[in-house]
Amino acid sequence: MITKKGINASPGVAIGPALVLDTEEYRIPRRTIAPAQLAAEIATLDAALDTSRQEVADLRVAAARKLGDKTSAIFAFHEEFIADKGLRNAVVELIEKQRYTAAYAFGQVMNQRQRMFRSVSDPYLKERVRDLFDIEKRVLRHILGRARENIARLTEPVIIVAHDITPSQAIQLDRAHILGFAINVGGQTSHTAIIARMLGIPAVVALNDITSDIAGGETIILDGTHGVVVANPDEQTIERYRSRQREYRAFEAQLAELRDLPAVTEDGTRILLMANIELAAETRMAIDVSADGVGLYRTEFLFLGTDRAPTEEQQYEVFRGAVRHARGKPLTIRTMDLGAEKMAEYLRDYDEGQSQLNHNPVLGLRSVRYCLTHLDLFKTHLRAILRAAVDGDVRIMFPMITTLMELRQARSTLHDAMEDLEEDGIPFAREIPVGIMVETPAAALLAGAFAREAAFLSIGTNDLTQYTLAVDRSNQRVAHLYSPHNPAVLKLIREVIQAGRRAQTPVAMCGEMAGSPIYTELLLGLGLRELSMAPKEIPEIKRVIRRTSLKRCEGIARKVLRFDGDREVINYLRDKLREISPESGI
Ligand code: PEP
Ligand code: MG
User: Which atom of ligand 1 has the smallest separation from the CA of 191?
Assistant: First the structure.
């Protein structure tokens, strides 16, 4: 029995078999195929080898031009290796004789080759083992891209154990069969953590090398509330966690009883509780748990997990579905926030992907910056939103706005899209509120100016914390430094709320901080009246609101703003939450 501690990323307890994904997160089960499928499997292999060879040939040419012969020689090696008939024939033989899938057979042959390279004494060849890993990943990506032999097709409930889950993979997950996530990397606001909370699946992140500690099929316990994973548990331990699982379910059932009660403080202030969603279909679920609307629809997920950008028509259909599910309640559509880890291969600029330009992706061409340099893509997206908005209470929200110029440019692109629609005679929403996310310290400090130009502001604390404290939100090695309750972040939040109040522009919060009960009283005390969170989190936040008063919250905020250290803040807030909600399990 091994117990490992990580960061609690999504609450709940899961017990079940582990599905360990290799470093590329591809699941390559040892599966056999029917004789009739042989030809198709070999064709898949050939196509993947061919595309991969073409890719590395392109890289070789580009590298020779830009970086010189030494780098291009590496790609020449890749090209030669992939083009080698001996490699292809060895894989085909396994497919034909053993009836293995192309992916499994290719993996087997690559394993043999890696072992061979490692065992020779020539240091040059030994070094090449790393290149073989690269080649394997590239070819497998193409085989699997075609065969869809990935985590989208699970047949039994499993706990996913992986280095990380990229947003592109997350969107393809077979949600019905996933009991939990145990992840090597990340922090509380890394995308895997957010996705897990969105799905209501227990998750533990920042477990370092959990992928090498656990073997596939092994039973594991995952306690997402306390951030613990137990591998190979004995019967007694399983029983103990089963009882915790029952307690957690009872706690959830109790919260469900709040569904039809309003989010009102004891002294009568109504707080709007909105939902964060990633897929249009989640709108219905959000409204079902009595959300007052959608405060953040992360539309970039529409662009992930596919081979090409969805057309205007496809986007329009999806957005229309969301509008329909919102049933007249507000739907805040955030324009695509692509970049950094939320990026699809087909959208990556060649230069950005391959070169030195991409060393700091979160400080690079992401989000609205990406949109403003890819205007055709952006305009198509805006047209689809404007058209779908005809029937509902839709708002547009631009992410990652840092300068006023960006807001003005984004708005002018929106106007261009409107003019084009007008010319084409296509109906669209003419009066649509346009707001921004405040996720950079620059936007927070200039919130007054933004509040005068935008219809609303929504504070994105996940990025705001990252940029204020200079801490990568998905890097587990600095996760201890990442705290939205750091007084520096809190002062920026207060600044935005006050600027909004002065300009009479509504201010909401849609970062993860808004869905964590420990912060609820503080945020109300600072003046927020609208919070947006994963639908699952709404009941607990509602319960805290119903047990407190604005007067108490304001006292808490005053006190917190006097602290200089984040430890003092969190300890104080924990004590305060215990007073009114001892069941919150903090
Ligand atoms: C944020 O940054 O707080 C936010 C809500 O956006 P995302 O988590 O999608 O970056
Ligand atoms: Mg953000």
Answer: 8
Catalytic residue of the set 163, 191, 381, 485: 191
Query: Ligand 1: does its nearest atom lie under 6 Å from the Cβ of 188?
Result: no
Cβ burial of 481 (10 Å; 0-12, 13-18, 19+) is: middle
Same domain for 130 and 43:
yes
Per-residue pLDDT, averaged over 196-208, amounts to: 91
Neighbours of ion ligand 2 (CB under 5 A): 439, 460, 463
Chain segment 459-495, per-residue pLDDT in tens: 999 999 999 999 999 899 999 999 999 999 999 999 9
Classify each residue of 367-398 as buried b or exposed e, where b means 16 or more C-beta atoms within 10 Å of its C-beta. bbbbbbebeebbbbbbbbbbbbbeebbbbbbb
Same domain, 423 and 494: yes
Mean pLDDT of 264-284: 93
Angle at 281 between CA 280 and CA 282, to 5 degrees: 90
Residue 400 pLDDT class (50, 70, 90 cuts): very high
CATH number at residue 432: 3.20.20.60
* Number of domains within the chain: 3
Question: Can you give the residue range of the structural domain that contains 207?
Answer: 2-26+150-252
pLDDT of residue 485: 98
Same domain, yes or no: 232 and 281: no
Query: Is the pTM for the entire model greater than 0.85?
Result: no
User: Which of the listed residues 121, 143, 165 is the one where a domain comes to its end?
Assistant: 143
**Does the C-beta of 278 come closer than 6 Å to ligand 1?**
no
> Are 332 and 311 within one domain?
yes
Domain boundary among 119, 143, 167: 143
* Residue 510 known to be catalytic: yes
Do 320 and 269 share a structural domain? Answer: yes
The band of 292, judged by pLDDT with boundaries at 50, 70 and 90, is very high
Say which CATH number the domain at 164 has. 3.50.30.10
CA dist list (Å): 400 to 6, 61, 582: 29, 36, 37
Q: Is the CB of 510 under 6 A from ligand 1?
A: yes
